[in-house]
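re: ur question from yesterday

yeah so i grabbed the chain u mentioned. its 97 aa long if i counted rite. heres the sequnce exactly as i have it in my notes:
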Amino acid sequence: MEEFVNFDELSQEQKIMVVMRKVLTTIVRETAPHPGHSSPFSEQTIEDIRLCLSLISARERELAEAQGIINHARPHYTDEIPTSQVVSWHDLKKNNE
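ran it thru and got these structure tokens back, copy pasting raw so excuse formatting
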């Protein structure tokens, strides 16, 4: 189960990391070119944005681990084969009767 932390409960540095990540990803999303058009950013700027997001993620992870919070969540593709299976309690009860 995923646990969400209230923004007001975060440290000042954690708040800065969250806002910086949101602002950078919003800028990238809002300036994304339409198919067939080139990016408004130079290759160096794109690489710098990637580096910034990577550093933000690394620092967020360090801050969470320092508080004893370990995040095991990992991104996955929608067509990825699930590694677990949901079992209905209702079905289990029927089979055991």
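noticed a couple things. The CA atoms of residues 87 and 93 lie 11 Å apart. also The chain has a mean pLDDT of 84.
anyway ttyl
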